[in-house]
Structure formats: C-alpha cells, structure tokens
Amino acid sequence: MNLHSVYGTANPVIGMVHLEPLPGSPKHSDSLQTVIGRAVRDAERLEAGGVDGIMLENFGDAPFYPDDVPKHTVAAMTRAATAVSEATTLPIGINVLRNDPIAALSIAHAVDAAYIRVNVHTGARVTDQGVIEGVAHETLRLQKQLGSDVSVFADVDVKHSAPLASESFTAESFADQTDRGLADAAILTGSGTGHAADQSYLESMAAVREDYGLTTPIFVGSGVTKDSIETILSTVDGAIVGTSLKQGGQTTAPVSVDRVRELMAAAERVR
Fold first, then answer.
1. Strand ranges of the sheet holding 130-133, from the earlier edge strand across to the other edge
2. Helices (H), the chain
3. Which of 125, 268, 135 is nearest to 189 (CA)?
4. CA distances to 140, 150, 176, 208, 265 from 173, in Å
5. How many CB atoms lie within 10 A of CB 155?
6. pLDDT value, residue 71
7. Interatomic CA distance for residues 199 and 89, integer angstroms
8. Residues of the chain predicted below pLDDT 50
9. Residue 61 CA to chain centroid, in angstroms?
10. What is the pLDDT of residues 130-161, one digit of tens each?
11. DSSP code of 53?
C-alpha cells in the first residue's frame, strides 16, 4: 500500500471521530442529526489541526454487537460518513464495532471512503462480546465483488481482547494477517482505548515485518500522545489517534484543535 498516494505523506496521522450513541443503541438520547453535527465538528477540528486522515466509528454504541450490526446502524453510519466526507477534504475510514467488516466495507464503498478498520480480521479472539472469529474470506470477496479499492486496516492482537490460547500472538500470526489475510495495513495497540502500545512490542513487530520480507504498513492504534508520536513514527509507519486529541484527554469529549496542532507539530519533526 502506498501511503503517500492516499495521505500525502509516508507517515500519516489519522484522527478519530467517535460517534455518540446511534439510534437503537442503549445510550442513544439525542437526534441523529445532533449526533452527525457533533461528528462533523470533530472532523472539521481534526482537519484544522492538521491530521492526514479521519477514522469514523460507532464508539457510543456499547454494548456492541459482536458482528452483523442492525441495518439501522449501517444507515445511520452511512449518513454520518457522508456528512463528514462532505465537510472535509481528508480521506476517511470506517470502523463498525465490534467487528462488522462487511458493514464497514459497504459503508466505505458507498461514501467513497479510503479504508476500513477491522478489529478481528483473521483468527479468533476472546472479547467482552464473546469469541469473535475473523471473516477475512468474506471481507476480501465482497471487496472483489464490489470492485472496491477500499483498503483493509487490520488489528493485530487487538485491544480489549485476548487470544484463545495462552500463547501470546506470534510472528507467524502477524505474517498471516497480511500475507494470507491480505490486509493492506496492520494496526498495533495497547490493552485498551487510550492505552499505549509498548515500544519494545512495536520494535519487535517492525522486525517481524522485515524478517518475513513484508512491506505492509504498520500503524499504532491506541495511546498515541504528543509525547510519544515522534518515537512511534520513527519505529512504524503511522498512527491512529483519538483520546489524546480530545478536550481534557477524555475519549468522549469534543476534539481540541490545540491538542491536534500540538501533536501534529511533534509529528512533523520526524517526517
């Protein structure tokens, strides 16, 4: 995957738009139009702060469906993604929690998004939604059927989950994610939202990529801050940033333009 052709840089920083609870989810209270309006404002602030891309996800819909979200969720996210794409010039991505890559790809294809995030692309993970199995075989076939050029960003050892076996995630599993699962990019995370990935882990996965002769871009997808972004972009290719860009560093708060600018200023020092 050529990151520069999509983001205008070889080391992109993607900012998160965490959607508030959508219609039908337990915590939904405001109108869909209000939810969309807040998402658009966050996207505009991310662009004003200088990020290279935006990732949209249904963060407020907890407790999440393990897969196969309802059609009204797909419809609401499509409306939100359309509004965000019309409000910014940045490439956008879609993540349908907890793990519905078919919905994500369908939305992304409909709104001309550039990529999707898939939390469990291959293998199986134990999560708070139960055991989730990857459906890379379905996702990639739908991509082919649609004639879609939407890229697949797949998590490796994804946050808020554990492997089925006691053995930790292996180098071979990482290679399978991209070589056999045909993911366009790999995402590394810490244990949960806002939790940093260990630097030694990032270095080991970068080494695995080299050892296996892979060229798949690696992103860090949690716990990225203005203090860590330089080290991260010196180790891997890109970052997906959410919590640290919000007012007060709170995941559910609005995006702070000042925080975005501070992080991007640090990123520019190494790219």
1. 130-133, 124-127, 161-163
2. 3-7, 32-49, 71-87, 101-110, 136-146, 171-179, 199-211, 229-235, 257-268
3. 125
4. 18, 23, 5, 10, 35
5. 25
6. 98
7. 32
8. none
9. 16
10. 999 999 999 999 999 999 999 999 998 776 88
11. E
Query: Any residues with CB less than 8 A from the CB of 93 and at least 6 apart, and which?
Result: 14, 53, 54, 55, 56, 108, 113, 114, 115, 116, 117, 153
pLDDT at 171: 65
User: Tokens 């199995």 correspond to what residue?
Assistant: 133
Query: How far apart, in whole angstroms, are the C-alpha atoms of residue 131 and residue 144?
Result: 27
pLDDT at 244: 97
Beta bridge partners of 53: 14
Structural domains of the chain in order of their starting residue, each with its CATH number: 8-268 (3.20.20.70)
Residue type, 60: G
Distance CA 229, CA 214 (A): 23
